[in-house]
Amino acid sequence: MTYKQLSILRLFALNAMSGCIDLVYAVEGAYFVPAIFDSGISHIYGAMLISISPFMGIIFQSYMGTASDQCQCFWGRRRPFILALTITCLIGLLLFPFTEDIADLINQQDLQEAVLIVLVVIATFFSDFSAGSLLGPVRAYLLDVVPQNKTKTGNIIYSICVSIGAAIGFGIGSIKWSSIFTSSNDFSFQVKFVCIVTCFLVILCIIITLCSVKEQNPREISDDEEINLLDEHSKGTQTDFDNSLFGIGIDTMSIDEIFNHSENCDFVTVENGSKYCCSCFGNLFSSIKGNFIFMKYMSLSMIILCIAFFFSLVGLYTQIYFFTTYMAEVVYDGDVDAPDNSTAYENYTDGVAFGSLALGIAAIVALVVSLLLGPIIRLVGMRLTLVTSYILLMLQSGVLIVSHNAVVAAVLAPAIYISLIVILAIPFILVSIYETKGLLLRKTWPYPSTNLTGRACSVLCIALFMGQAFALIVNGPLINLYGSAEAVMILTCVTSFLGAVTAGFVTVPSDSSKKVQIGSKMVDASCQTTNDRLLLGVSNPLALHCVDEDFDDELDDTL
Length: 559
Fold this sequence. Notes:
Largest sheet: 2 strands, antiparallel
Distance between the termini: 24 Å
Structural class: mainly alpha
Low-confidence stretches: 1-5, 229-281, 513-559
CATH superfamily: MFS general substrate transporter like domains
CATH topology: Growth Hormone, Chain: A
Shape: globular
CATH architecture: Up-down Bundle
Radius of gyration: 23 Å
Number of domains: 1
Mean pLDDT: 76
Strand content: under 5%
Strand order of the largest sheet: 1-2
């Protein structure tokens, strides 16, 4: 490692970009959907325009992870990707608030609307896809440069930074800047100001992060050093990778990014026996096909876990993207189509601002809960914790269907992010346990790849993107059909109930089993004591060794 010891201040600097990602997500969640509706695009098509990003995420995320692993830039593996994706994110953030102004330059009405839609798609894709793709390189950058004895501290600071980033993002949106700097209640000015301030903060964070710790030049790393680096990296993620999920970040493809390290190879063999080079630009097809091959062999336990994960994410993304719209249209009785100086339009902008404030407070509450999640799981168990998080979201949305009070909505807002940190954490913890217990597959895996945990995490992330896309595609037409943004709470309530029922059947294995899936074989092995756990060797995937450690202690380290 480049540094033997890292100060707390430097660790915060290293994680500045992780907080920035959730800052961008907060601004998107609070303002992008209301701003799209304000531009004149209908409810039916407005939210659908953002759904392109999660669809592209399904295709490209794991490929992006392999590309950064194979990068040979003298500046390091991760920093070139972090810089490039930050630039595209800034382009999206700067373009989005001016899409309507650019479209207004065109005189023809039909062409004007078409240009507006194209610009909105480009802006949201650049900002959302770039922010999601940044999670992988930023997370891997942290694990690459932080020594083993600092990984747990680094992960805690990571969680703190993403929570702070989300709180700042929602906090910026909660202030009515148009009332401060202009005499009119101009919502478009509000969106422009929030996006520009966000861009300045993104630039500040990227400078701080990239200057915090120097990466080693990949060209100067010998083969032996590379093996040791991957070995230490994999050991770190064995116990600490799930901490990255406890932030407010929506996109969790960083899991696949982490496990791509153990897939570093010259070739990957897929189902038809063909070999595809794992170069930066030759791995896309095999990455996608490998995920679908894994789905073909998934166990019933994995299928149930993915279904429960999908239902929960539909409800969560519905709340995250449409909570401020619900506050503006239902709680504050606002109308985005009303004249700019009317009471209804002012109520709409007030509702968006108050909804953003409520979500900012929710992000701070979620930070506290995330630090307590480990003890909570040990006390009540993983299945009950997971089911409770679904029920909490269901009750929150159910109450808001009946009550349209602003104070009640603000008090219940933390339920969104409390459910989020639980639902984004436990499934990935279960995947690592399923791998140890041999529960990932329903039949023998016939291919050479041994990195089944990475594939399982990729499948969960596909379910995540599908949940995000489904929420964005369905809610617009649903609001239009129902005639009120109250429909988003109905959808959340229904999907959360379905998720709670499915989560009740999620398999949570005991620690007594010692059956391990290794590549194409199921291996029964035993250790000297009942408290020992089996670990797969890193440099030699077929090697097993025992570690004298209680299951609860393992969970404690992971959390």
